[in-house]
Each structure stands twice: as structure tokens, then as C-alpha cells.
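Write out this protein's structure.
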Amino acid sequence: MSPRATVQDREQGTRRLDFADNTLAQQLYGSHHSHLARIEQALDVTIHARGNRLSFTGDGDSVAAAARVMEDLYKRLERGLGVDPGEVDAALRMAGRDDTGLTIRTHKKPISPRSPKQADYIRAMDDFDLVFGLGPAGTGKTYLAVAKAVEGLIGGEVDRIILSRPAVEAGEKLGFLPGDMREKVDPYLRPLYDALYDMMPAPQVVKRLETGEIEVAPLAFMRGRTLANAFIILDEAQNTTAVQMKMLLTRMGENSRMVVTGDLTQVDLPRGTRSGLGDALEVLERVPGVTFVHFSDVDVVRHGLVTRIVRAYDKVDGSPEARKGRKAGPAEHD
């Protein structure tokens, strides 16, 4: 039987955990007990460590939450996975949810949900053929979709991955940019390449791009095709028109799955052009086999400052004065 944390002394406002493996316990605490300090600050509790024993004091609910976080992180270490500050923050967000084992397997590393909404998103990609991931930057919409696609490819569930973005011209005309067509459009697609290289060894990415098992291309390149046995991802979908969105959605062939991601607060289309993402939300709302996962600022898993930035912009954008100014001003860019 693998070592497990044991719980003792469940009095109101106090709790104690004993961990069976001293080595894992030290990894759990972090360098100079930095992980413990992070949890103390987040939950307003006091944690004392002595060897493999932790003692918690504070508000009863907060103490219970802190103990759950430590137990979840210890189980993660038991499974051979690492614990870093990001994982501590994720465990704080996920405290109390039974999402143990909900992991995406890629060549480089396993990827676990870092927020309850990310867990819902991963389950949606398992259960539905067409998933819309909507919300602000930093919530993991595209990253998790690419991870799920890579898992499907290396597991033999699909034969290829199709990654696409609309090449919206942010102040520059593609025709005036230097280089051939690939060199012109690659900057728009760079985030998708970055996600791939984070999940697969570089030689494998290059080889699969050459063989066509992975294709990264602008949305316009999808016209007239039937995409069978594929995992298809459309990123930055808020910058599609309604015609473009319909075109891509109707490309799905046999044994294909599709994930569409976007943020309707970051539309870069010309003024007066309806976003295909917003249109799809209305048209497909009640279509069986389609689901929508809505992320918010509380799901941002980047630097903590990003959450505060998103909230600040949401607050300003929601005011009557801001709406009036946005309407009269130039198109925004992310």
C-alpha cells in the first residue's frame, strides 16, 4: 500500500496531518516552507511543520480547506508528479472537488486542471464532439485544447491535429509583410506552435508537421475540405465572421472532434462586422452534441496580476462612458 496522509485531532479550528513518507513531505512543504506560507496567506491559517507532521490552526472551515489542499498535493507527489507554486495555487482553487486523476497525458508532461472550470472543460472535451471554450486570456482554453489533441494523436484516437486561427490584420496588410505566405502568417499562429512544443519533443513536432499529422494553418486554408479522423482547434474565434464560422464547423468529418476558443471582449473585426463566435452562441445553443464552457477572471491561471488586470478592464468596459467611448473609437487589439 502506498504511503498516505493520516488525519488526527479534528477539533474545531485545529487539525493535524501525519505523512508516511518524509521525503515527499519535504517536497510538499517547498523550499524554506514556501508552499506552506502560500497556503497560510491564501486561507488565513497558521501551519506548523515538524518533520512529517503538520499542525493547522485558524477558522474551522479554513483549516479544513488547508488540510484538503495538503492532502491533494501529497497524493499528487505519490503519483510521481511535481508540486510547484503554480500547483499549490491550483490546489487552492480545486480544494473540495474530487478531480483526482483527471489528467491529460502528453509526451513531455501530464497536465492537470488548475481550476474547477478547467476540470469541467476537460470533461466536456471527453464527452462532446464540439466544445466552445469562452473567456478571457490566461484561463487555459487553447492550451488544454492542444493538450487534449496531442493526447488523442499519440493515443491513436485521431490521425491528425488541425490547428487554425483567423489571420486578422492588426494594423498591417499581409501583402506588405516580407517573406512568402508561410512567413507572413506564422506570427499569427505562433501561440499554437508554442503549445505544441510544450507538450511534444521538438523533433516529433517537426516530423509530424512534415508528414501532415499536425497542420497549423490560417482559417482561410480550411475552405472546401472535409476534416475526418481529426482533432480540430479554432483559436481566437471571436475574429471570425459568421460565414467563416459556419464554413469551419461544417468541415467536420467522420470521427472528428472540434474545440473552438475565443473571447468576445477582444474582437478585432472591422466595425459593424458580426463576430462568428457570438453568432454561433445563439445559433447552436440548443443543438445536441454541442456544449459551451464559460471561463471568467477567477479562472485565470497566469500571474496573479493578470486576474486583477482582467477585472479592471471588465469594470471600465462595463461603464456607460466606456461603452460610448469604445463605440466611437478605433477597433481594439489584444
